[in-house]
Design goal:
single chain, 3-stranded antiparallel beta sheet, 9 strands, 6-stranded antiparallel beta sheet, 12% helix, alpha+beta
Amino acid sequence: MSEKSAKTPVNQDELKKRLTPEQFHVTQEKGTERAFTGKFWNHHEKGAYTCVVCGAELFTSDSKFDSGCGWPSFSKPADGKMIDEHVDKSHGMVRTEVTCSRCGAHLGHVFDDGPMPTRLRYCINSASLDFDAKKQP
């Protein structure tokens, strides 16, 4: 699915059965995994990173870079229509939260300290992602 559409309703009970406690906490309760602990922070295979909740393609390995922050970092989404941005004023900070536009899952945050040409750093929790090596960029 590449077109933005109404969010797919998510059954919380089904998700609690399907996702790990950390995946549920991150995607549904806007949690954050500890830095340098996620399965994708130091991942270098070619392919596509998808939403762990609904399977939407979010990022490709071509846009992944090592930012040194301890979370998977991407310079741009695979398709901007699959990422929504929201003002996040939690924890005494003002940041830009990113969510999956298909299901609303919390992914992480985007910052303006990334590499050229976008200057963006999508700092994404591994717990919100799956990986598909078959989808080569």
